[in-house]
Amino acid sequence: MIIRSKAPLRIGLAGGGTDVSPYCDIFGGAILNATISMYAYTSIIPRNDNKIIIKSLDRQQQQIFDSSLFLPVNGELDLHKGVYNKIVRDFINKPLSFEMATYVDAPAGSGLGTSSTLVVSILGAFAEWLKLPLGEYDMAQLAYQIERIDLDMAGGRQDQYAATFGGVNYMEFSGNGKVIVNPLRIKDKYLDELANNLVLYYTETSRLSSKIIEEQVQNVNKKNEKSVEAMHKLKEQAIMMKEALLTGNLEQIGEILNFGWLNKKNMAKGITNNLIDEIYDTAINAGANGGKISGAGGGGFMIFYCPLNTRFEVIKALSKYGGRNRRYEFTTQGLTTWII
């Protein structure tokens, strides 16, 4: 028997950072994101020899343990072990024996929600295997608890919900951890045009998002007026993006992205740097009319809206920086699990 799962990565289109506490607890946050055809995969094969084997195929890491109620969290494959520990503690209260293998289509720290999506994928595989009664909100909230509370990893709330629900969603975040996912019914032709015009460019760099997020948190706690006002503007951007997509006013997308980018840079230091600014300016000069860094910032993927047929000139202009364009499609399905 093989238990498998996959969960989609996401592109954050607007509102990024307003899903991070304490901002969303105090003011309420809003995010608009869309899942894409890049995934985190998990396979579990049950064993009967009281061994646990965990493999990260993309990172080329492996760890082997004797079956136990708790696996040590020590900086190696902690996401995998964190999910296992949560499952054992909260649901079954007995050790398991299995081999787990995971793979993610994008590098860690690249800004597409890889860590949270991997947690959702692993959690989904365990839920399928053990027949756990978890709905979509349960799954996303459990993934959030594992990553943000159990493992104490800095970050927001959007990624777990995007990976679980899938599709294009307008998400609202408020105090006490409340999250409302609003799926958007966008016409296929609008989504096809958005995918055609939105270039996903990997800078071939990664970053430790926790450092940027920690500063963002400090800025809210210290009531840094410039930073907090930037987050207010990004929340407005999410509403603007929702209206543009629903009404098919795609010519506004670039301008809305640019509005968000100008404000996002004021949230915390490290969101941009000289290379990112140069890449952004090069894309604009080649025909893009807006863009942003994906995720917390500092590196990883960038997106650019390229109207008409300018995407080809933009990709050509960016080639000198050594990064690469990634082809993708928007997806409508979130976490998927099955047994063979």
Could you walk me through the main structural features you see in this protein, from its secondary elements to its overall organization?
With 340 residues, the protein is α+β, with helices and mostly antiparallel strands. It is 41% helix and 24% strand. It contains 11 helices and 12 strands. It has helices at residues 23-27, 78-92, 114-130, 136-150, 158-165, 188-197, 209-221, 225-247, 253-264, 274-286, 311-318, and strands at residues 3-14, 29-46, 51-56, 61-66, 98-104, 168-173, 179-183, 198-202, 290-293, 301-305, 324-325, 336-339. The strands form 2 sheets. Strands 1, 2, 3, 4, 5, 6, 7 and 12 form an 8-stranded mixed sheet that branches. It has a 4-stranded antiparallel sheet with strand order 9-10-8-11. α3 crosses α5. The longest helix is centred in the C-terminal third of the chain and has 23 residues, at 225-247. The radius of gyration is 20 Å and the shape is globular. The model has no long low-confidence stretch (mean pLDDT 93).
Count of alpha and pi helical runs: 11
What's the average pLDDT?
Answer: 93
Q: How many strands, what sense, and barrel or not for the largest sheet? A: 8 strands, mixed
The computed structural class is: alpha+beta
Strand content: 15-25%
| Backbone CA Rg | 20 Å
Share of helix among residues? 40-55%
Write down the secondary-structure element order: EHEEEHEHHHEEHEHHHHEEHEE
Instruction: Kindly state the number of beta strands.
Output: 12
Cα distance spanning the termini: 6 Å
Shape: globular
Low-confidence runs (pLDDT<50, min 5 residues)?
A: none
